[in-house]
Amino acid sequence: MVKLFNKDNKKLTLADYKGIWTRFCFLDESGSLMDVKDPFFTVGFIRCSQPYYINSKIIYERKKQNFHDEMKFNKLSNKNLDFAKHALDNFFSTRNLYFHSYSLDKQGEYFNKEFGGDPWKAYEDISIRVLKSAATTDDEILIVVADYVSTPDHVKFEVNVKRKINDNLKRLAIAGVCRFDSRSNDLLQLTDLMVGAINYDLKLSTGVILRGDKYKRRFLEHFKTNLGVKNFIENGFRNYNFNIFIDKDARQRLPLVFDNENEKGPSS
Question: CATH number of 22-264: 3.30.420.10, 2.110.10.10, 3.30.70.100, 3.30.460.10?
Answer without folding.
Answer: 3.30.420.10
